[in-house]
Every structure is written in structure tokens, then in C-alpha cells.
Design a protein that fits this description.
By secondary structure, the chain is mainly β. 0% of the residues lie in helices and 55% in strands. The chain contains no helices and eleven strands. Strands 2, 4, 5, 6, 9, 10 and 11 form a seven-stranded mixed sheet that branches. A four-stranded antiparallel sheet has the order 1-3-8-7, with no helix packed on it. A hairpin with a 4-residue loop joins strand 7 and strand 8.
């Protein structure tokens, strides 16, 4: 089992920055992919960025150059968000894969005002 707890959401003005964190805990040796999805009101959940255990991070086109994903050896994944836009407003969910199973956090709200 994997538990994911997000933190760092909030409200900012357009052009501002936020840093999201997601700490994974449970009985495991290491996680495969970790990442972030988001869901805006009335829209489907979409991938924002993922960081595989080996390989390069992947970003959705709309956040390239503005968001940076990173992870550390303690199974914590971060999302540094800069130049935020109103369209980035959403609930951001942490995501992790262990073996063949995917796990989700409860989400953290990010609100960007114009």
C-alpha cells in the first residue's frame, strides 16, 4: 500500500508561483513513476507531469517551460509552478505507480486569479 499526501496548494495571482509537494509513505522499497495530474471544474483529469524512476520527466505541452517536476530519494515528488495562468486553476493530484497498481493523493487546490 502507498499513501500519498499533497501540500503546497493555494491561491495566487496570474504570473505567480507555487510549489507542490507529495510525500509517499507505506511498505515499499521504491516507486516507479511519480507525477501530477490536475482536474479543472467541468473537465477531465489530465496529466501535468510525470517523473519515471528511470528516464526523463514528461510534461503536457501547456506547462512546458513553466512547470518543473522533481523527485528525491525519500519518495517525495515536487512540482514547481511558475508563470501561473488562470487556466492552471484546478485540483492537483499526486500520482504514483508501484508494480502494476496506481495510487492517488486526495488533491490540493490551486487557484490562479487574473
Amino acid at each position: 500500500q502507498v499513501q500519498l499526501v499533497e501540500s503546497g496548494g493555494g491561491a495566487v495571482q496570474s504570473g505567480g508561483s507555487l510549489r507542490l509537494s507529495c510525500a509517499a509513505s507505506g511498505s515499499f522499497l521504491g516507486l516507479n513513476t511519480m507525477g501530477w495530474y490536475r482536474q479543472a471544474p467541468g473537465k477531465n483529469r489530465e496529466l501535468v507531469a510525470i517523473y519515471p524512476s528511470s528516464g526523463s520527466p514528461h510534461y503536457v505541452d501547456s506547462v512546458k517551460g513553466r512547470f518543473t517536476i522533481s523527485r528525491d530519494a525519500s519518495n517525495t515528488v515536487y512540482l514547481q509552478m511558475s508563470s501561473l495562468r488562470p487556466e492552471d486553476t484546478a485540483v492537483y493530484y499526486c500520482y504514483a505507480v508501484l508494480g502494476l497498481r496506481a495510487y492517488w493523493g486526495r488533491g490540493t487546490q490551486v487557484t490562479v486569479s487574473s
